[in-house]
Amino acid sequence: MNWDYVASWSEWVAPVATTIAAIMTAANLGSRVTGWGFVVFLVGSIHWTLLGTATGQTSLIAANGFLCVVNAVGIWRWLGVRARLDDGAQAAERESEDIAAPALLSLANIEGCEVTGSDGEILGPIRGGMVERDSGRLSYVVVACGGVGGVNETLHSVPWQDLASGEDGFSAPVTRAELMAREPLDPRNWPARIPG
Question: Which residue in 18, 134, 147, 166 could disulfide with 152, CB within 3.0 to 4.6 Å?
Fold first, then answer.
């Protein structure tokens, strides 16, 4: 094998694949994108291993040999297990719309949905929520306002019963200015009860 040729390809493929994979997994765009991110990570790890072999770097070979195993587990977890669970939840959502029953919504699909204010302006994405343990009802969701990627955003609670579900997310009976005028939530200490 021509190791100079392998090294010349791998020294470009490895860092490019690793960078793309990091963006795909960090973006958290769903189980399939994350799963394919691990596939791209695996390609990067294979090329780092080849580069280590071509250049005699034992530590690079060992580290990326281990990362190949980690990436294979990530592929199994996100493209296998999690994707099947997402498919099952989506099937239940679709079926509930077709029969005379209350429409269902997967908890996994609520987080990240955009909430639109009463004036049509986007308030922000849902970052989480709280479920009443005994009844199983959602108590409130936490909406992130402002900022980019979690930096300089403020968190605000919106009672679940105040939200209306739509095709593109949820709507709330407040404007962005009204929501931002409320006391923001402490990210480390969400309330046990919210007024409303």
Answer: 147
Give the integer Cα–Cα distance in Å for 14 and 181: 48
Cα 57 from Cα 80, distance rounded (Å): 33
SS3 assignment, position 84 = helix
| E-state strands within the chain | 114-116, 122-131, 138-145, 154-159, 164-166, 169-171
Q: For the purposes of burial, counting CB atoms within 10 Å of the CB of 98, is it exposed (0-12), middle (13-18) or buried (19 or more)?
A: exposed
Convert the pLDDT of each residue in 40-86 to its tens digit: 999 999 999 999 999 999 999 999 999 999 999 999 999 999 889 88
CB neighbours of 110 closer than 8 A, spacing ≥ 6? 126, 129, 141
- DSSP letter string, 13-64: HHHHHHHHHHHHHHHT--HHHHHHHHHHHHHHHHHHHHHHHHHT-HHHHHHH
pTM above 0.85?
no
User: In this predicted model, what pLDDT tens digit does every residue of 92-111 receive, in sequence order?
Assistant: 888 888 886 677 878 877 88
Instruction: Identify the CA nearest to 186 among candidates 140, 131, 132, 142.
Output: 142
